[in-house]
Specification:
Strand content of chain A: over 45%
Radius of gyration of chain B: 14 Å
Number of strands of chain A: 11
Number of helices of chain B: 0
Order of helices and strands of chain B: EEEEEEEEEEEE
Distance between the termini of chain A: 33 Å
Structural class of chain B: mainly beta
Shape of chain B: globular
Largest sheet of chain A: 7 strands, mixed
Oligomer: heterodimer
Distance between the termini of chain B: 40 Å
Largest interface: A-B, 27 and 25 residues
Helix content of chain A: under 10%
Largest sheet of chain B: 6 strands, mixed
Order of helices and strands of chain A: EEEEEEEEEEE
């Protein structure tokens, strides 16, 4: 599989619980992005990695959110103490160049 | 502020007719421009991009887009719509400077193609 893989596809969690999502980018892509998409809106940038370094974080990424990319390969996005407002589709994208973004199918989070 | 506007929430077109999905942008410098399509419960699929060169860009599934610098627009077009084109379409821009290449997306336009 040469695409961007995201797991799980769907996650339902109770408010206050912690959740973690995983993204496996295309293997040769050194740049990795996380976006959040709420209903009726376009994706909004959350954070960016170049290799293992997290180089940019959006103001949308509150203290409850943390992302990692150990060894510059897969990435994880963790949300602590989830709130109903966190319900959204979380999209991962990777690229090697500035014009070749490939998106995964996303993880849909529902906080009940 | 850098932004992308898709002025139409929904576009309705009959199968076989031409379609246009509008996009305007506001960024500094010369941006890279993209169109993506999203089917229900799926991620974004790349359609086409404008980096430099010819203002008319051809992409996947018969779509094309025209870059107009003076009007800061990048409208998506297709000469003959198919029912299977019905989906959510997003215009995105990568600002020329700053932001580590992140994309700024419009709110999306839902295209409905009727038989």
């Amino acid at each position: 599989d040469t695409g961007v893989s995201q797991n799980p596809r769907h996650k339902i969690t109770k408010r206050g619980q912690n959740v973690t999502f995983r993204c496996d980018p295309i293997s040769e892509h050194n740049r990795l992005y996380w976006y959040r998409q709420t209903l009726g809106q376009g994706p909004e940038f959350l954070t960016y990695f170049q290799n293992e370094a997290q180089l940019e974080k959006s103001r949308l990424l509150s203290d409850r959110f943390s992302a990692e990319r150990p060894k510059g390969s897969f990435s994880t996005l963790e949300i602590q103490r989830t709130e109903q407002g966190d319900s959204a589709m979380y999209l991962c994208a990777s690229t090697l160049t500035v014009d070749g973004y490939t998106f995964g199918s996303g993880t849909r989070l529902t906080v009940v | 502020a850098q932004s992308v506007a898709q002025p139409e929430d929904q576009v309705n077109v009959a199968e076989g007719n031409p379609l246009t999905v509008k996009c305007t942008y506001s960024v500094s410098g010369n941006p890279y421009l993209f169109w993506y399509v999203q089917y229900p419960n799926r991620g974004l699929q790349f359609l086409l991009k404008y980096i430099t060169g010819d203002n008319l860009v051809k992409g996947s599934y018969g779509f094309e887009a025209e870059f107009n610098k003076s009007q800061t627009s990048f409208h998506l077009k297709k000469p003959s719509a198919l029912v299977s084109d019905s989906a959510l379409y997003f215009c995105a821009v990568r600002p020329f400077s700053g932001g580590y290449n992140k994309l700024i997306f419009g709110a999306g336009t839902r295209l409905a193609v009727h038989p």
